[in-house]
Design goal:
alpha/beta; Rossmann fold; binds adenosine-5'-diphosphate; binds magnesium ion; four-stranded antiparallel sheet; 8 helices; ABC transporter ATP-binding protein; about 240 residues; six-stranded mixed sheet
């Protein structure tokens, strides 16, 4: 049987601003298994980013239960959340968030600096090069990010997200800053990584890209209104 990576059960998120309550997520339940590729889509304001920030332990749920690899992470302190985030979550954002002063390989190795105990420099570099090979950028390790195309920069960001061997890769609008050609390259790369075993949960408003995932969650007003599974994957 496939290994359960993520379990969200009856998750709600309410934002309180002044007099107002915003019910950003209402009673969300779903599971993510090892090797899954899930997309989350829906109109602006439906709760996509909120859901991704909960999944990534950037914010706590207001109620409900959240498990990562069977560990209950529903009610963590900020420090506990940061520790688990570093070990188990890889993030890819619309903005690549690379550091222009560092080489590509140093950008990718950076998260290992914040691990305890710290990873020795040689090992960090070797691991970073392995991740860059996975995104077909083994020939660009000593370049600076601004010497690369947008699509290549996003692939560097993906390599960085993979460096700590996360339980899941969380991806928010990965093609939002790319032209369609570079966007396609990045999406093909994510598909290849998933085929090689990486578990992916991606937010996108692009229907064509959402359909590349095995399973599509559609959000509306903070609720899952539809779940679709690609026919081929359901066999
Ligand atoms: N920090 C916050 N404080 C108050 N309201 C918020 C906050 N973040 C998001 N919201 C509200 O929660 C709802 C969902 O937002 P969001 O998750 O950003 O939607 P999406 O990413 O689908 O566009 C919206 O009504 C938004 O205004
Ligand atoms: Mg958003």
């Amino acid at each position: 049987m496939e290994k359960l990576k993520i379990k969200m059960k009856n998750i709600s998120k309410i934002f309180y601003t002044g007099e107002m309550e915003t019910h950003a997520l209402k009673d969300i339940s779903f599971d993510i298994y090892e090797g899954d590729y899930i997309s989350i889509s829906g109109p602006s304001g439906c709760g996509k980013s909120t859901l991704l920030s909960l999944l990534g332990l950037l914010a706590p749920p207001s109620s409900g239960q959240y498990l990562i690899e069977n560990e209950d992470v529903s009610n963590l302190t900020l420090t506990e959340a940061a520790t688990i985030r570093n070990r188990k979550i890889g993030f890819v954002f619309q903005q690549f968030n690379l550091i222009d002063e560092l080489s590509v390989v140093d950008n990718v190795a950076l998260p290992l600096k914040y691990q305890t105990p710290p990873v020795p420099l040689n090992e960090a570099r070797d691991r970073a090069i392995k991740c860059l090979n996975r995104v077909d950028l083994g020939h660009r390790v000593d370049h600076k990010p601004n010497q690369l195309s947008g699509g290549q920069q996003q692939r560097v960001a993906i390599a960085r997200a993979l460096i700590a061997d996360p339980a899941i890769l969380l991806v928010d609008e990965p093609t939002g800053n790319l032209d369609s050609k570079n966007g396609d390259v990045v999406m093909d790369m994510l598909e290849q990584l998933n085929k090689d075993g990486t578990t992916i949960c991606m937010v996108t408003h692009d229907a064509r890209y959402a359909d590349m995932a095995h399973r599509q969650l559609h959000l509306l007003d903070g609720e899952i209104v539809e779940q679709k599974q690609n026919v081929m994957e359901a066999v």
